[in-house]
Amino acid sequence: MTELVSIPAEDWTLHGIVHLPTQSSGKRVGVLLYHENYNTKIGTHRLFRELSERLACAGFYALRYDDRGMCDSPGICDLTIADRLADARAAAKFFRVVYKLDVVVGWGLCLGATIALHTSASSDPQEQPDALMLCSILADPGIVSLPQFGYERVEISKVAQEFFLRGNVFRKLLNAPRSFRSWMRKLGVIVRRHSQGAPKELARMKTTIGRVGGLLAAYDGPCLMIFGEKDSYLEDFTERVNPNDKLKLKEKPNPPEWVLIENGDHTFSSREKTEQLFQITLNWLERFQNREQGADAVGTATGNSAAAD
Amino acid sequence: MKVQYFGKPSRRLFGVLDAPPHGARAGLVFCPPFGEEMITTYARLARWSKQLAASGIAVLRFHPFGTGESGGSFADFNVEGAVQDTVTALSYLRDLVGTKPIGLFGLRFGGFLAAQTAIGGRADFLLLWSPIVKLPQYFRELLRIRLMAEAVHLRTEQVTYTTQDMVDDFEAGRTVDVLGYEFSPTLYHQMTKGFSWPEAPNPRNVLLLSRSSERFSAASFPQEWAKCEAFTMSAVTDPPFWENFSSVFPQRFADSSQSWFDQTLALKR
């Protein structure tokens, strides 16, 4: 069963879908799914939708949402990384408070994993996830310069080269008066993208992603990291972000657990790999839930004995 | 903006209505592209839908059964069902906009879906962006994408499953996994043999926008299309934005469509 929800985030409203558990377990555990880049809450090859359904069947709440002014959320927003982080925090708080959850687990894919990790550093405990599941985490800032992130800086020299060296320049100049309006529009876009927003936002994005290593080193909650064996982000993480365990993750009292999916790609895009990802997620959550309930039982027993003393 | 489920309980569809703040001058149903292209273009088409709503056009974006937020699994998705769902979406929007003109918009496979649904005069106008005209060829390309992905990620000797093997599986009644999407034998049969591009444009008012490199011409369509005076074809220079996730908005597709709404269809603001 699903509920369509509206999540307040600063002056915006986010559209979300909550999957309600079909069976009840002891604690109310919710999994908040953070999608990647310019994606929707459906997820690539419907991954988020299917995972949410599987989580609900296993007794967990699941929330998926669209960022402010994107997809099914109202309004139009030129989304920044700060917006994404604010939305993630708002969603976590909403999920915990409205659904009276005992535990919120952040589950993110690619940039979504980066966002999930950042929420762990929030100053408001209600916004912080109690555990993290980070899949194909985007940890190398250089990657966001790729065109799919949409922040590529327009270089005037490249544009001039394109104009003068491709096609018939004489004909272009001859037709220039007729295509004047079109060229002015293009010129406006080029100048804007060269001089303003995008490069600044790219710098902010890189800074945010550049903090991933430090945040991982500082995070002391339960954490599972999942990578596909064939995902280039795995190499980026192990060779650039954390070469030879530079971050000393293995030495932490509660080191992140690692799972490598054999022959898996960045988004686990085959039924077999998707199923493996679901199983890994569900098994880890079950163990996490058992540990939590075990800790509660110990806490209760200790409390009782202290009271008896 | 109204987000909701509609349709029969056994075939629950998800839809988002972007309604103009001061009454609609027309209605438009967005037919989404197929598979991963639906996901890669989702944010950008949603943005355009909101812009159209602000200009007075009520837009219904919906997810065919088996896709997106609608019921069913992807194995339930097929062309015939998607056409039925588009008819359901069209009549849902018709109830909302009353006697105002109502049209269908489709990108890529969504263009095919829109053209199919329009047969029988169900819509007043048709807007197509780089539509898929030859479905069997498109389906073959989809199957090849899986092989290409495997070639990138696996060692050559591990890529042993060919497009012919996939076809054999379909013919034997088995589903085939294409990058996480479960294609059913029904989908295969309908994509390769069951449906073809409509013989004549119906409705008469059609705008087809494509990238110049796609080389659409009157010869790409059945004769009746070429004879139709209200069938307009135009080339734009936007990149093939459906191929990847990006924030790059198809501005020229959107601008040309808006001009057509304003001038040709006289959907004055």
Work out the radius of gyration of chain A. 23 Å
Domain tally of chain B: 2
Topology-level CATH name of the largest domain in chain B: Rossmann fold
Note the gap between the termini of chain B.
20 Å
Estimate the global geometry of chain B from the Cα principal axes.
globular
Q: Which range best describes the helical content of chain B: under 10%, 10-25%, 25-40%, 40-55%, 55-70% or over 70%?
A: 25-40%
Number of helices of chain B: 9
Low-confidence stretches of chain A: 302-309
CATH architecture identity of the largest domain in chain B: 3-Layer(aba) Sandwich
Q: Tell me about the biggest sheet of chain A?
A: 8 strands, mixed
Terminal-residue CA separation of chain A = 47 Å
* Principal-axes shape call of chain A: globular
**Overall number of domains of chain A:** 2
* Secondary structural class of chain B: alpha/beta
Biggest sheet, spatial arrangement of strands of chain B = 1-2-4-3-5-6-9-10
| Largest Cβ-defined interface | A-B, 39 and 32 residues
CATH homology superfamily name of the largest domain in chain A: Alpha/Beta hydrolase fold, catalytic domain
Oligomer: heterodimer
Q: Tell me, what is the CATH class of the largest domain in chain A?
A: Alpha Beta
